[in-house]
Amino acid sequence: MKVIVTSIFVDDQDKALEFYTETLGFVKKHDIPMGEFRWIALVSPEDQDGTELLLEPNNHPAAKEYQKKIFDDGIPATMFGVTDVHDEYKRLVNLGVKFTMEPTDMGEVKVAVFDDTCGNLIQIAQK
Asked: Where is the VOC domain (predicted)?
């Protein structure tokens, strides 16, 4: 068994698609109309056959509440691996991304946390 799709709640699918592709550099794999919303799945440019990240609308009250509570408590919704957390931090800051935690050593891992502008905190990590 392996993870093939994981999702993140977003408050605006168009805004999320723009941020995750143009700012973070993910590649759009699927963008399929599904009634009021869309099935938008992204992949890493380095592994386009790998795990897909679904930009899931937070239109359900429980999804909105969950997303708000973990954001307010400073809990990242997910984590992305990077080769060099300091380089990625600098790149994203130069693109206007707001960080809530600058690169920090956590034992064998270096992490940083940023606001994805779509209702989530995202952690980047370097092992």
From this structure: 1-127
